[in-house]
Amino acid sequence: MNSQKSLPVWILIVSGLFALMEIGVSLSLCFAPESVLETVDLTAKGVLYLVYMWAARQFALGFILAFATFKRSVPMLSLSYIFFLVMFVGDLLIGIHQKENSMIITAVVMCLISAGLIYAVNRRVSS
Predict the structure, then answer these.
(1) Which residue in 18, 55, 79, 83 could disulfide with 29, CB within 3.0 to 4.6 Å?
(2) What is the dihedral of CA 113, 11, 126, 76, to 10 degrees?
(3) Domains of the chain: total
(4) Contact 94, 51 (CB under 8 A)
(5) Residues of the domain holding 119
(6) How far is CA 17 from CA 12, 42, 115, 120, in A?
(7) d(CA 30, CA 113)
(8) Which pLDDT band, with edges at 50, 70 and 90, does 127 fall under?
(9) Among candidates 79, 71, 80, which has minimal Cα distance to 18?
(10) pLDDT tens readout for residues 47-104
């Protein structure tokens, strides 16, 4: 129980910001998908279905991260950041396949941040 309450404030702030970011992306995808997907033909059959599926994934991750942050749960925060890491590894592979440098750079940075947060959150438990 003590390890759950001893998380550094900076981890909680970063986790809260990531939760808000994910929920914000979800809302943008639902209400203004053209702002996120400038090069996608949103009128093509099935595209909005995929956009809403993506929005649901982003919202779920944001909600789980917000809940884990609020509860100060080390296991939940660890799982959230593992999910983040896996998601951004996928984005990295997509960026490499599409030869999109901005996506590659963003994915690498977010993979490093996620890995660092996994380490920082779990370091508190083992100390």
Answers:
(1) 55
(2) -90
(3) 1
(4) no
(5) 2-126
(6) 9, 29, 17, 16
(7) 27
(8) low
(9) 80
(10) 999 999 999 999 999 999 999 999 999 999 999 999 999 999 999 999 999 999 999 9
Token pair in block for residue 59? 């919202």
| Average pLDDT in the chain | 90
Quote the tokens at residue 21. 């970011």
The stretch 91-120 carries a mean pLDDT of: 95
Residues 55 and 23: their CA atoms lie apart, in Å, by 9
Q: In this structure, is the dihedral angle defined by the CA atoms of residues 8, 9, 12 and 17, taken in order, positive or negative?
A: negative
Over the stretch 14-47, which tens digit does the pLDDT of each residue have?
999 999 999 999 999 999 998 888 888 888 899 9
Q: What tokens were used for 32?
A: 């203004």
What does the pLDDT read at residue 125?
A: 62
